[in-house]
Amino acid sequence: MIINREAVKEGYIELMSNMNAAYHLTIVFPANTPALECRKLLNMLIKNLNRKIYKKRYDQGKSCIQGVAVRERTPELSTDHFHMIIENSNSLPGYERFDALLKHQIQLLGGNSRYGTPKKNYIADYKLQNYYNSGDNKLEAYLTKNFNALGRPLDLIIDDIGIMGDSVMFGEPMLRVASRW
After folding, report:
1. What separation in angstroms does the CA of 141 have from each of 13, 84, 136?
2. How much is the pLDDT for 49?
3. pLDDT of residue 139
4. How many C-beta atoms lie closer than 10 Å to residue 81's C-beta?
5. Could you tell me if 105 and 51 are in contact, meaning their C-beta atoms sit under 8 angstroms apart?
6. What is the four-CA torsion angle of 23, 44, 153, 85, rounded to 10 degrees?
7. Digit-coded pLDDT (tens) for 39-70
């Protein structure tokens, strides 16, 4: 079966633009952080935020951060970074509180160990923005730009898009979850 790349890309753009999004979050890692470690740190950040925001409701599996995460390679630094569109929910904190929670969690996952030895793998920085879409889907188009890389297999591009919840689930399993939206 031949899959139309443009149709798949448009499907992802539609999925993201139809979300009731609150924030656009970008997290970056220092040079030479392996892809697996980037994903581990991303998932640790999401789990820690879930615990701080939702507390018992998270532990009981009742509430968690929802949204979409996109992995973007940074070849000149031999590492990755992630863009996330975070779904708005009644329990999601306002911008200032969410930013404070992020800053604290990023410090915990940052490069300085409390014992004085620098950590090998860590989240170097983040940028939190209020989400907006003036109808042109610019952010969503940017996040799906890898679909335009014709030399890159479609399954690898799809593997770079994940659904947020308890952690971030990338690739094919994400498609099954996203189809319920």
Report:
1. 6, 13, 9
2. 93
3. 95
4. 22
5. no
6. -10
7. 999 999 999 998 898 888 777 778 889 999 99
Q: What is the pLDDT of residues 109-118, one digit of tens each?
A: 876 656 555 6
28 neighbors 81 (Cβ within 8 angstroms): yes
Q: Distance (Å, rounded) from C-alpha 130 to C-alpha 149? A: 29
Any idea which residue has 């799809």 for tokens? Answer: 158
Q: What distance lies between CA 22 and its chain's CA centroid?
A: 13
**CB of 161 within 8 A of CB of 174?**
yes
Angle at 101 between CA 20 and CA 175, to 5 degrees: 40
Whose CA is closest to 86, among 104, 69, 103, 72? 69
